[in-house]
């Protein structure tokens, strides 16, 4: 049975208080003994102890703590782009032109809590959201190893919710994914790290992602719609560089983002009759009229779970505020 882990501090504690880990049972927490500074420490040294905790040991009220991101900022934050056909098409692209896995990074320093505010920088006007399934490594990848679909449990520890918040007016005109996606608070993660059993890893395709803004559904899709599956991505990453226990891989987002490609006629005009500078100026001017982009006071709610509720990653809820 999946283990629902959280990282937390007492609600009234100072921000620099030493975080603790625990297992959630209903509305209570069974605290885990010991100190695990990083996600890697917890997975290496505390995972089995967490599996031994029972509801009888759940003595701490969930409402009495502040929940922190279950992935610590020392871990790598790797992302996949255009990994759902629906998102490829809404971006004005043809999936047939993407026979490769698009991989980039976000700064780990942008990781924030599942209920913390998302801060929109003063110069950013086109703030967007992207719900994604986060994979957390259970061990270091062996350079060059090949991960097969039936061996995910040997490589991965668990899953979590990621919101790949993006400043489109930085990312797109500048062609800078890292800059446009790495501002402080642009990586809400959690609330939980769901540790899966070997047989539960075979159900990752059944996980359904839902993102709402102010109660209105914007994104909804099953994780099985990914173009490049977890075992393919892990295999490719193992061929690129070191990947270590506790590192986070965000697996891409489906359709429903605020950013949309212009129509074919507009694209033709932009391509043939405008300079690059003029093209992006026109894009930003038009996009500013799009009511789907996030504004201060907007509230995002993200959930990922199987339809039968057997695997449930909880609900992330964040509010947009001005810098």
Automatic annotation (TrEMBL):
Residues 77-321 form the Fumarylacetoacetase-like C-terminal domain. InterPro entries: FAH (IPR051121), Fumarylacetoacetase-like_C (IPR011234), Fumarylacetoacetase_C_sf (IPR036663). Gene3D superfamilies: Fumarylacetoacetase-like, C-terminal domain (3.90.850.10). It holds the Pfam family FAA_hydrolase. Keywords: Hydrolase, Metal-binding. One of its GO terms (molecular function) is hydrolase activity. Belongs to the FAH family. This is Fumarylacetoacetate hydrolase family protein. It comes from Metapseudomonas boanensis. The lineage of its organism: Bacteria, Pseudomonadati, Pseudomonadota, Gammaproteobacteria, Pseudomonadales.
